[in-house]
Specification:
Mean pLDDT: 89
Number of strands: 8
Strand content: 25-35%
Radius of gyration: 16 Å
Helix content: 10-25%
Order of helices and strands: EEEEHEEEEHHH
Largest sheet: 5 strands, mixed
Distance between the termini: 58 Å
Number of helices: 4
Length: 177
């Protein structure tokens, strides 16, 4: 039986998170596939917004646009806001040494909010990028931003509450425009 790594000895993985708002002020959420490495389905909370790692030397905004396309095929967006600070989450003990390739204690995320300027038919989570990228989601929908913390795995809930706080005024821009 392998032992759990020392949490403090592991770094955070730099990553981006993406809140994509439609014309009604709702955000894109995708349902993680059953083979999800973070075991979201084990927690009965498989829905989340797109996210992914920042490559070495990559600008976080570029990483956000790349990850969004690689996970959803969405490329028609305009930047609305960037969260004012990094948002962190820690993996639970049972996932240390397993999730995130076993190298990290959690993630340090830079969150961006975008307005979706395309059509729903542009979104393809089953064969993102025309099939060039591994599908991370098996379904998607539009959801109220305020509901996203209740849809995410418990260990990411606090991070999602901070995302909601950072972008809370954005849905009103659409409904009162």
């Amino acid at each position: 039986m392998s032992s759990i790594p020392n949490r403090e000895s592991l770094p955070y993985r730099d990553c981006v998170g993406i809140a994509v708002f439609n014309a009604q002020g709702n955000v894109f959420v995708g349902r993680r596939k059953a083979d999800d490495p973070e075991k979201s389905t084990d927690y009965d909370a498989p829905w989340q917004m797109p996210q992914g790692g920042i490559d070495a030397g990559e600008d976080p905004l570029r990483a956000a646009l790349r990850e969004l396309y690689e996970e959803t095929s969405i490329s028609s967006v305009s930047l609305l806001a960037e969260a004012p600070e990094w948002i962190y989450y820690d993996l639970p003990d049972e996932q240390l040494g397993k999730a995130l390739r076993g190298k990290y204690r959690g993630q340090r995320q830079r969150w961006f909010a975008f307005a979706f300027t395309g059509a729903d038919s542009d979104i393809d989570v089953s064969a993102p990028g025309g099939g060039k990228f591994h599908a991370e989601f098996d379904a998607w929908r539009w959801e109220r931003l305020s509901r996203t913390p209740s849809l995410i795995v418990p260990f990411k809930r606090e991070a999602y509450e901070k995302v909601v706080e950072a972008f809370i005024d954005i849905p009103q821009r659409f409904t009162h425009a």
